[in-house]
Amino acid sequence: MSLNRQEKAAVIEEVSAELVEAKSVVVAEYRGLDVASVTVLRKNARQSGVYLRVLKNTLVRRAVAGTAFEPLSEQLTGPLMYAISNDPVAAAKVLSDFAKTNDKLVIKGGSLPNSVLDVEGVKALASLPSREELLAKLLGTMQAPITQFARTLNEVPTKFVRGLAAVRDQKAEA
């Protein structure tokens, strides 16, 4: 089913709006994927905050024109699925994880603002921890000294009371 001019303009506008906030775009060929597999992939993408859509390449070329992702337009050939994310790692991670279990999804490349990634670049990006993972690690690192300090404060009165009891017992024996 083909789109009329207004529908195409709406799609270009929607993709352009996603690209304004985006930190990464990953493209993959989806030829041969069944509907159930695509449904699982879309669910994973939604859970990770990734905008995932199958689009005509000409519409995407128009949407990326004048953005930091314009160099990506050289990679837009064939039936492609586009993953756009505000987290630089999320889109690459979702598609790479899915491609590990489904050989029909073939990652073709991607882009970070003002730079193009090849397949190996996307895989390297997918191996990095996500923003949420990094924040969790940072919070854990920041909480460790506080937890240790609280533990120490709880132990001081106990040790003090034990010390007083020992002194009292020594005086009672004398």
TrEMBL record:
Keyword Ribonucleoprotein: yes
A molecular function (GO) term: structural constituent of ribosome
InterPro entries on file: Ribosomal_uL10, Ribosomal_uL10-like_sf, Ribosomal_uL10_bac, Ribosomal_uL10_bac_type, Ribosomal_uL10_CS_bac
Gene Ontology terms describing biological process: translation
PROSITE patterns (UniProt xref): RIBOSOMAL_L10
A GO cellular component annotation in the UniProt record: large ribosomal subunit
Any one Pfam family match given in the protein's UniProt record, by short name: Ribosomal_L10
Keywords: Ribonucleoprotein, Ribosomal protein, RNA-binding, rRNA-binding
Stored CDD domains: Ribosomal_L10
UniProt superkingdom: Bacteria
Function of the protein: Forms part of the ribosomal stalk, playing a central role in the interaction of the ribosome with GTP-bound translation factors.
Quaternary organization: Part of the ribosomal stalk of the 50S ribosomal subunit. The N-terminus interacts with L11 and the large rRNA to form the base of the stalk. The C-terminus forms an elongated spine to which L12 dimers bind in a sequential fashion forming a multimeric L10(L12)X complex.
Family the UniProt entry places it in: Belongs to the universal ribosomal protein uL10 family.
Official protein name in the record: Large ribosomal subunit protein uL10
Organism: Kerstersia gyiorum
Gene of this entry: rplJ
